[in-house]
Specification:
Length: 67
């Protein structure tokens, strides 16, 4: 539900930006790209620590990693 809400708000911002639509598209694209890169970087840096803290044994690590 949240991705649909984000998409609806993005489309509403573009609709309301009459005269500034090009700048709105550039800013929105930059925001989405920045957020995606931040999520990927954070996952790469602390992903192993989270798996180690949640998994109680080595047997469940593949399942925790998949989640």
């Amino acid at each position: 539900m949240l991705p649909l809400l984000a998409l609806a708000l993005y489309l509403a911002a573009i609709y309301l930006a009459k005269g500034w639509r090009r700048e709105t598209l550039i800013a929105g694209r930059g925001g989405i790209l920045g957020a995606a890169l931040l999520v990927l970087l954070t996952r790469r840096l602390i992903g192993g620590a989270v798996v180690d803290s949640v998994a109680s044994s080595d047997a469940v690590k593949p399942a925790v990693t998949a989640v």
